[in-house]
């Protein structure tokens, strides 16, 4: 039996378009190979330095990590904290409160991924 989605109100073409637009916006901000991985590592580890973050995410280059962190900072998911009073200067990255609003989404994606993997294994 297929799972069905039950909507609280009838879906109109306008509502469908709005929903698609919202999903596109979300995917644009957190989509890609690395962004969710970075967000998850930051949420699990708290304050973390660049090299430690890079070691935590297997396969990401320093250049890509730097660019992704800049994008995440622009969108309010990551805060860059510079400790200029230390020698050498220490830069840490932390997840923001706004970033933590993604936690239910990440949990739902994780659960769906596990279910999907089981389903695919059952079919083969």
Commentary on this structure:
With 124 residues, the protein is mainly alpha-helical. The chain has a single domain, classed as Winged helix-like DNA-binding domain superfamily/Winged helix DNA-binding domain (Arc Repressor Mutant, subunit A, Orthogonal Bundle), CATH 1.10.10.10. 60% of the residues lie in helices and 11% in strands. The longest helix is centred in the last third of the chain and has 21 residues.
Ends distance:
19 Å
Largest sheet: 3 strands, antiparallel
Note the run of SSEs as H and E: HHEHHEEHH
For this structure, what is the CATH class?
Mainly Alpha
- What structural class do helix, strand and pairing data support? mainly alpha
**CATH-defined topology:** Arc Repressor Mutant, subunit A
As residue ranges, the low-confidence spans are none
Number of helices: 6
Tally of domains: 1
Q: How are the strands of the biggest sheet laid out side by side?
A: 1-3-2
Approximate helicity band: 55-70%
| Broad shape | globular
- CATH architecture name: Orthogonal Bundle
Strand content: 5-15%
Q: Would you tell me the overall average pLDDT? A: 90
Report Rg: 18 Å
Q: What is the CATH superfamily classification?
A: Winged helix-like DNA-binding domain superfamily/Winged helix DNA-binding domain
By DSSP, the count of extended strands is 3
């Amino acid at each position: 039996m297929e799972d069905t989605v039950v909507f609280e109100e009838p879906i109109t073409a306008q509502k469908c378009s709005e929903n698609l637009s919202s999903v596109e916006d979300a995917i644009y901000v957190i989509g890609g190979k690395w962004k969710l991985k970075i967000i998850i590592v930051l949420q699990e580890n708290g304050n973390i330095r660049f090299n430690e973050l890079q070691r935590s995410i297997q396969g990401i280059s320093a250049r890509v990590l730097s660019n992704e962190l800049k994008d995440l900072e622009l969108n309010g998911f990551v805060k860059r904290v510079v400790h200029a009073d230390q020698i050498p200067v220490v830069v840490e990255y932390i997840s923001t409160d706004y970033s933590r609003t993604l936690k239910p989404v990440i949990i739902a994606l994780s659960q769906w991924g596990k279910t999907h993997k089981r389903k695919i294994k059952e079919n083969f």
